[in-house]
Specification:
The complex is a heterodimer of chains A (282) and B (348). Chain A is an all-alpha fold and 282 residues long. Chain A has 13 helices and no strands. In chain A, α1 packs across α13 (237-262), α8 packs across α9 and α12 (224-234) packs antiparallel against α13 (237-262). The two termini of chain B are 44 Å apart. Classes of the chains: A mainly alpha (282), B alpha+beta (348).
Chain lengths: 282, 348
């Protein structure tokens, strides 16, 4: 009898936990689903009974297509710049183990810690007078690079610090490989995980960046998140929601790819030491 | 194999950027084809010496590294064509076993067929052919060691430099690989510099050994010389087990608290300490003449022999070995003879 009571008690606890978990999930997911549905319903106020439509999606596509392409373009340009700047920076930081290197490592985080608005204002105050630059998408790119570069450096650096880079390079050098060969044959392939994780981080952050871009953009250089704010502020709710839906469709596959690629390889296994014994007598 | 290389270090000192002198000026002549072991505790300068030869460090101004009489001091490691094996193996995790072994050949732009042939030759030689396509993280320590050796030898280096190659392995595997490396080096007759802190490894592998201490050469010689004629007490204590007895030269012998060692007048000096190996001590019966008497304080059964620790009223008890069936019990008083030929009087 006692045992039965105990089992019932455990099951009751489990059901309670399950209910709580489901409630939290619902709380998080319901707004997402509602927003996506809003972008597909004919009239949000009337509800789903008014029917489903792709009209709003097409409307966004017609009106804001350029912001989508611009965002993708800036994200990719941002990736190229952070790769070219970030990977060599991480390499140098990993090879230099002195106090200066540690300081630079810490300072790199500043652009993340500072509010995006502050960074944007500083950029405008410094370079706003250069009209050609101020009105080009390059101005936004600079802001995005400032914001995302630390993520690239950090994730590459973390991988480089986890391997014995110095000895690996010495090994390659002893086999005749000069600096260039070593960098491309040994350093880059061995920080592949960090580069991939950093790249996906940079692209997703750049695509979704709003804070800074809100101040840096001009009417001719709107990005997707800025356009989204515009749509919600000035157009029907359904259009804004359809916009969000498009954003989701672009960012979710990216996030999933990030999860898959950034996961460390799990196929590691060590085989027992079955090295053959020499046939000669010791 | 190519003609073996002779290496010469002239006045090679090394001071690090922070001012620490890790190597006092060193002059060494390494003969073509010999295996030279650099032996010493950590921080004695042995690895720095190896790195100077490899080209991974530059000697202080005035120092010179010569390969077959040619000054290579300014040459980088890439240009020196030396094979190197690191304690951590430094195998490239992004490449398979075969790719690791073939990397040096790829750098030298060897034809693909020749590369393949040399790689499979090395795989055969190190008996790791079945592992060719494995990735490095699927290998055990012993297997990694073989791959590292194969990779270093694949490019037919002028010299082979090994930095504590067996330290990361467990004892049994270390013994096996030690024998194997020994056979390999004899067969290849390649000039080899081998760094280790393990005296057994040094004795087994070295044609000559340099015992180092605090950046200086304590002694250079064959394993036999190092063991039987240590230059000073540091070397004597570092290699094998050494007994020490304090006393003084008196009446044609060496008198001490436990008796009198037979010490011929020819050997005699003003020393107050004599050293001898455990194997120079034997147990004798009550009918024979005894040099020393003492009491057994510990008896360690080692299978093939028994190691006895004997108190002789000295700062340090004596160590000796005897057959297990002759081993006296702990607490028994024993009579000992010490072979006069084994007695050493050494400077500190």
């Amino acid at each position: 009898m006692h045992k039965m009571r105990k089992i019932r008690k455990i099951r009751k606890l489990f059901l309670l936990q399950l209910a709580f978990t489901l409630a939290v999930c619902a709380f998080l997911i319901v707004p997402v689903v509602l927003s996506m549905l809003a972008g597909l319903t004919v009239n949000y106020i009337a509800g789903l009974s008014s029917g489903l439509t792709l009209r709003w999606i097409f409307e966004v596509w017609d009106g804001y297509r350029d912001t989508i392409f611009r965002s993708v373009g800036i994200a990719l340009a941002c990736l190229v710049v952070t790769l070219l700047l970030g990977v060599p920076t991480a390499y140098v930081l990993a090879r230099t183990r002195n106090r200066a290197a540690r300081w630079i490592e810490e300072l790199l985080v500043l652009p993340i810690a500072m509010p995006g608005l502050a960074t944007a204002l500083a950029l405008i105050a410094s370079y706003g007078a250069l009209r050609g630059f101020r009105t080009s998408w390059g101005f936004i790119l600079v802001g995005h690079v400032l914001f995302t570069l630390p993520f690239m450096v950090r994730s590459v650096l973390a991988v480089l610090q986890s391997i014995d880079l110095k000895t690996l390079e010495e090994g390659a050098a002893s086999l005749g490989a000069g600096f260039g060969r070593r960098f491309f044959d040994i350093v880059l392939p061995n920080c592949r995980q960090g580069i991939l994780a950093g790249s996906l981080m940079v692209v997703t952050l750049s695509m979704g960046e709003f804070n800074m871009t809100w101040l840096l953009h001009t009417p001719l250089t709107k990005t997707l998140p800025v356009g989204l704010a515009d749509a919600y502020a000035s157009l029907r709710l359904e259009v804004g929601s359809a916009y969000t839906l498009i954003f989701f469709m672009m960012i979710v596959p990216l996030l999933m790819a990030m999860q898959t690629l950034a996961r460390p390889r799990t196929t590691k296994f060590i085989i027992a030491d079955d090295t053959p014994v020499p046939d000669a007598k010791p | 194999m190519t003609v073996p290389l002779s290496i010469q270090l002239q006045d090679c000192a090394k001071t690090f950027a922070d001012g620490t002198r890790v190597l006092e000026p060193l002059d060494v002549q390494i003969r073509a084809g010999e295996t030279l072991v650099l032996l010493g505790p950590s921080g004695c300068g042995k690895t720095t010496t190896l790195r100077l030869i490899a080209g991974l460090e530059q000697p202080d101004a005035g120092g010179k590294v010569l390969f077959d009489g040619v000054d290579v001091t300014q040459q980088s490691i890439e240009a020196r064509n030396v094979g190197m094996v690191f304690q951590s193996y430094a195998l490239f995790p992004n490449m398979s076993v075969a790719e690791n072994i073939g990397y040096g050949l790829r750098i030298r732009k060897l034809a693909a067929a020749a590369q393949r042939e040399r790689v499979s030759e090395m795989l055969e030689m190190m008996r790791i052919a079945p592992l060719a396509d494995r990735s490095i993280d699927q290998l055990s320590g012993g297997q990694r060691q073989r791959v590292a050796l194969a990779r270093a030898l694949a490019v037919r280096p002028r010299a082979l430099l090994l930095d504590e190659p067996l330290t990361a392995l467990d004892a049994r595997l270390r013994d096996t690989l030690r024998v194997e490396i020994n056979q390999l080096l004899r067969r290849l007759a390649i000039t080899t510099i081998y760094v280790t802190h393990d005296q057994a490894e040094a004795m087994a592998l070295g044609d000559r050994i340099i015992v180092m201490s605090h950046g200086r050469v304590a002694q250079m010689g064959t394993p036999h010389e190092i063991y039987h004629q240590p230059a000073n007490r540091y070397v004597a204590g570092f290699i094998g087990t050494m007994n020490r007895v304090q006393g003084e030269h008196r009446d044609g012998g060496f008198a001490c608290t436990a008796g009198r060692l037979r010490w011929s007048a020819a050997q005699a000096s003003a020393t107050t300490e004599l050293l001898f190996r455990p194997e120079d001590v034997t147990l004798v019966g009550s009918d024979a003449l005894a040099d020393l008497v003492g009491t057994v304080t510990a008896s360690l059964y080692l299978g093939d022999r028994t190691r006895l620790i004997i108190d002789v009223d000295q700062a340090q008890p004596l160590t000796m070995d005897c057959l297990a069936r002759n081993a006296p019990p702990v607490g028994q008083s024993v009579r000992l003879q010490v072979d006069p030929l084994g007695l050493l009087a050494l400077a500190a």
